[in-house]
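A quick aside before the break. I want you to see a complete sequence-to-structure record at least once, exactly as it would be stored in a machine-readable document. Don't worry about memorizing anything.
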Amino acid sequence: MKIGTIDLGYRPVTLAPMEDVTDVSFRILCREAGAAMVTTEFVNSDGLVRNVPKTIDKMHTLEAEAPVAVQIYGSFPESMVDAARMAERAAELSGGHGADIIDINFGCPVSKIAGRGAGSGMMKEPDKMVAITKAIVEAVRKPVTVKTRLGWDESSKIIVDLAERLQDVGIAALTIHGRTRCQMYKGEADWTLIGKVKENPRMSIPIIGNGDIDSADKALSAFERYGVDGIMVGRASFGHPWIFTEIRQLLDTGKPMPPMTVESRVALAKRHFALSLEHKGPVTGVYEMRRHFSCYFKGLQDFKETRMKLVTSMDPEEIMSTLDYVASRWGGIVP
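That is the input. The structure line, written in tokens, reads:
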């Protein structure tokens, strides 16, 4: 599967953008685990054009995570176009590798984004969505992709027609989350409409399916049942970055990967923590890892006291020692 000239290989599995999760350390870890492409956290177009430092910093990427997409969101056409131009210059503005792809967020359902008409809030205004996309495609040289949902609610699932219109204005690939905005993340993702988009004889760009892929078996089934070109994994990777290794092994060999032992999980957690410290510093790097540590060791019995040490300590050495204790105390166990 190619996005523009970027070859992601056969049946690629990509990492979804997730706010407060897909920072540079997590993206690198997922690439090392087998993700074919990763995407930044959401980059606010208004913040970019106002040169807000924290917003610009979100575009910072590294060669180790390439290919990487910078994802922008917003509801004002002019600022979205200006932000896309800035994202194209991410290497110059924020340092590092920059953006290989400009991705447009028309899928985020949270109220603070969708309620302002951005993200999946744009599903209420498909003409505006298409117009913004066209303007961005014409403003930048890098491939432009879109991530969106089925529609606003059950009565307005417009994705089949919308996909054609987005393709016609020049996007290089389309990712579809199999829920409406009103569903948020509830219920089951409806992959049948994703399949209908892929089956449409007018569609020629890659279609990437997203929603409820939380195992290698589900990933294989999505490819086989719905014919998508790629899949995107989101929440299931949180505290479980080796899901990409599991999926890749089943897709490539037909054989499942053995379950991860606690020792293997500790090794990954330590690698993740080291990357976080390297790229975020000793304070932010510790603080932002707290949300990950509990997830790495879900299912361990009598883990509450140890978990509290991991998520309250501010001393990197103490945290590393606690991780070593986890390996020795629960070694050999598969949660």
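Two observations worth writing down. Residues 164 and 201 are 10 Å apart (CA to CA). Residues 262-296 form the longest helix (35 residues). We'll return to this after the break.
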